[in-house]
Specification:
By secondary structure, the protein is of the alpha+beta class. The protein folds into two domains: 191 residues, Ribosomal Protein S5, domain 2, CATH 3.30.230.10; 170 residues, Alpha-Beta Plaits (2-Layer Sandwich), CATH 3.30.70. The protein has ten helices and 13 strands. It binds alpha-D-galactopyranose (GLA). Alpha-D-galactopyranose binds next to helix 4.
Length: 373
């Protein structure tokens, strides 16, 4: 394929979630940001009925017949593309055959949502090629279905939504029960956001993720026999305590995380609006602790990385971000102490786990960008 002759360059972002972890599929609010780490698709219509897919850094070349999209569920990378196209068409949109060159700067398996970036950029690229207008919420919903049905992860809507609707320099306070969102400018004063990858090769993320989701669904089912609530996020903390004995202990702990994390998101949004980075950081620490002790999605490496960060005097707070079981932490660090922070965290983390962390240089960016070439 000749890179010079594409018609559009379309990108969609990876994300970091500041707080509100494992609550999107419980109807809670989340506070993610789109990142400048992203997937870019160069695209041109090719007048056929196929999507010809190539990657800048993978040798796979795949052609997807638009009439057989459902048959590509077994493809390692292309299933995300086939699934997104499939559900986009099912939502009533027109697909045209295209040549598509993918370039992903979101590290795979990092917990920064490379899959959402690929899915959303696919839909945005197909939309541009078909001469349609991009609709962020519809695109996010189709991308989420692709993740459920072509990748087998029963995810919430957060990643796809922020990838499609993120805005530079803003966090997105997304209500996952109504899909309404509010942008909050991220003004951190003398602080910076630091994203670090624990670099533990993770495994079984999908099955453990789906297991957590089943546990909170069990909690909701039991509570709804006693309470008139539509989601776990709507359960007041005192009610959960009242019905604690009706829940199996593990299910209670999972539900307690969800209910308390939802309260932390509200407080964190206020702290962010006020520029209170100390208060914001304390909420990140509390979130990590809950994800480690109640929701049990951290593991030794993410705990070691977050705790090393939390011990550093320039750090106001640190937590795992994303699904967990490996992946990244996000920390709020005074900018003046950044170099010392990274050296300290690297040494401590390496001593405790034997892995070396990676720090990413990135910033909060728009979710989708569509450029005619
Ligand atoms: C993954 C999922 C999201 C969300 C997070 C945890 O990133 O894709 O929907 O559930 O985990 O907050």
């Amino acid at each position: 394929m000749n890179n010079g002759s594409y018609e559009f360059k379309v990108s969609a972002a990876g994300r970091v979630n500041l707080i509100g972890e494992h609550v999107d599929y419980c109807g809670g609010k989340v506070l993610p940001c789109a990142l400048s780490l992203k997937n870019t698709v160069s695209v041109r219509p090719n007048g056929t009925n196929t999507l010809n897919i190539a990657w800048t850094d993978l040798s796979d070349r795949v052609s997807l017949d638009l009439d057989k999209l459902e048959s590509y569920r077994g493809e390692k990378h292309a299933r995300y593309i086939a699934g997104s196209a499939f559900f986009w068409r099912q939502a009533g949109h027109r697909l045209v055959g295209c040549d598509m060159l993918y370039d992903c700067t979101v590290p795979f398996g990092s917990g920064l949502s490379s899959s959402a970036a690929i899915e959303v950029s696919t839909i945005a690229a197909l939309t541009a090629a078909a001469g349609e207008k991009f609709e962020p919420v519809a695109a996010a919903l189709a991308a989420q279905r692709a993740e459920h049905e072509f990748a087998g992860v029963n995810c919430g809507i957060m990643d796809q939504y922020v990838s499609a609707a993120g805005k530079a320099n803003n966090a997105l306070l997304l209500d996952c029960s109504t899909l309404e969102c509010e942008y909050i400018p991220v003004r951190m004063g003398d602080c910076s956001l630091v994203i670090a990858n624990c670099n533990k090769p993770h495994s079984l993320v999908e099955s453990k993720y789906n297991e957590r989701r089943e546990e909170v669904e069990t909690a909701l089912r039991i509570l709804r026999r006693r309470l008139d609530v539509s989601s776990l996020a709507a359960v007041p903390a005192f009610r959960l305590e009242e019905y604690r004995s009706a829940l199996p202990p593990i299910v209670y702990r999972r539900a307690k995380h969800v209910v308390e994390e939802c309260a932390r998101v509200a407080k964190a949004a206020s702290a962010l609006r006020l520029g209170d980075m100390k208060g914001f950081g304390a909420l990140l620490n509390a979130s990590h602790r809950s994800l480690s002790e109640l929701y049990e999605v951290t593991g030794r490496e993410l705990d070691a990385l977050a705790h090393a960060a939390q011990r550093h005097p320039s750090c106001y707070g640190s937590r795992m971000t994303g699904a967990g079981f490996g992946g990244c932490t996000v920390s709020v660090v005074r900018t003046g102490g950044l170099d010392n922070f990274m050296t300290y965290v690297t040494e401590e983390y390496q001593r405790e786990t034997g892995y070396e962390p990676t720090f990413y240089t990135t910033h909060i960016s728009d979710g989708v960008e569509i450029m005619r070439l």
